Amino acid sequence: xxxxxxxxxxxxxxxxxxxxxxxxxxxxxxxxxxxxxxxxxxxxxxxxxxxxxxxxxxxxxxxxxxxxxxxxxxxxxxxxxxxxxxxxxxxxxxxxxxxxxxxxxxxxxxxxxxxxxxxxxxxxxxxxxxxxxxxxxxxxxxxxxxxxxxxxxxxxxxxxxxxxxxxxxx
Length: 170
Fold this sequence. Notes:
Elements: H1 2-16, H2 20-24, H3 28-48, H4 60-68, H5 72-116, E1 140-142, E2 149-151
Antiparallel strand pairs: 1-2
């Protein structure tokens, strides 16, 4: 349940403050990029349309009146950037959840294959080195990082060179 709410929370926080939704997802570069884009774009539009930003501290009622007085050419692009930032935070959050689920499923499949293998026990170095098919070929498992099939005996994916999840416990 928590994984399903994380993308929604990131999208809502991205609407509240530029980049905050990406910070929750621990995407530091994206958070900084969205923050600088929205704030910088807003400042550039205010300067381009010669809108007086006002240097005094405003009460909330005065701030609302000042925001209503802004031209549409300024508010519409900034609002669009906020919405795009929120959509991006949601999509990135969903991708993170899908990736985490794929890694968990791959690790569970490897554990099940290891449990159904012969009772001789695995050879040191890899918990799945004894897994073979009927033809005495080593079984292929899917890499959780790139999705390509790799040899179960290896400690890393030979396609993307990332360590495989069952090797990290050693």
